[in-house]
Amino acid sequence: MKKSIIYLLFVFAVCALSTDMVFAQSTVTPIVDVPIGLEGDPPVGVGIPNVKTDVNGKFACKLPEGKYKLMLSYNDIASKVSRIDKNYASKPGGYEIDLNFAGLTANLWIFDRWGNRIKANAKVIINKETGVISITANKGGGTLSGTLTYTKVR
Fold it and tell me: How far, in Å, CA of 154 to CA of 151, rounded?
């Protein structure tokens, strides 16, 4: 009897490993048409560009030399996502809103609210406490680019 049970368990394990198994995957969804708020003190006569995310949640802008503050309204973003995804509206804690910076130029520095420098290709989780992200564009300025998305948390 023991041998039969062990044999059945062995056969079951082999069958389970040999079939295609489906695992739950997180779906990363872009957040479209969100304003990327920038405030700063660029040189006189130089305006700060108006930036919004595109259909892929991507944004990019050239920043002249100066210091800037990037501001995203968590409530505005959550409201926009709620209109797109009714599941988010009922369970916002089951999702993560991410700002992914991409390929920052060498003379563009980004700092979180605690003053820690954020590296290129870094992810910042946007929540009610995120607050302002500081940006310093050194001599010659730089390009700020990234993607704003939300992901269902498993």
Answer: 9
- 69-112 pLDDT, tens per residue? 888 888 888 888 888 888 887 787 788 899 888 866 777 888 88
Exposure string (b/e) for 106-127, b if CB count within 10 Å is 16 or more? eebbbeeeeeeebeeeeebebe
Q: What is the Rg, in whole angstroms, of the alpha carbon atoms belonging to the chain?
A: 22
Say which DSSP state 75 is in: H
The residues facing 99 across adjacent strands are 124, 148
Concatenating the DSSP letter of every residue in 105-140 gives -TTEEEE-TTSPEEPTT-EEE--TT---EEEEE-TT
Residues forming beta bridges with residue 110, ordered by sequence position: 118, 135
Q: Is 71 helix (H, G, I), strand (E, B) or coil?
A: strand
In terms of C-beta distances under 8 Å and separation of at least 24 residues, what long-range contacts does 108-115 make, across chains too?
108/63, 108/135, 108/136, 108/137, 108/138, 108/141, 108/142, 108/143, 108/144, 109/135, 109/136, 109/138, 110/70, 110/134, 110/135, 110/144, 111/135, 111/136
Q: How far is CA 127 from CA 47, 76, 99, 119, 146, in A?
A: 28, 11, 11, 20, 17
What is the three-class DSSP state of 70? Answer: strand
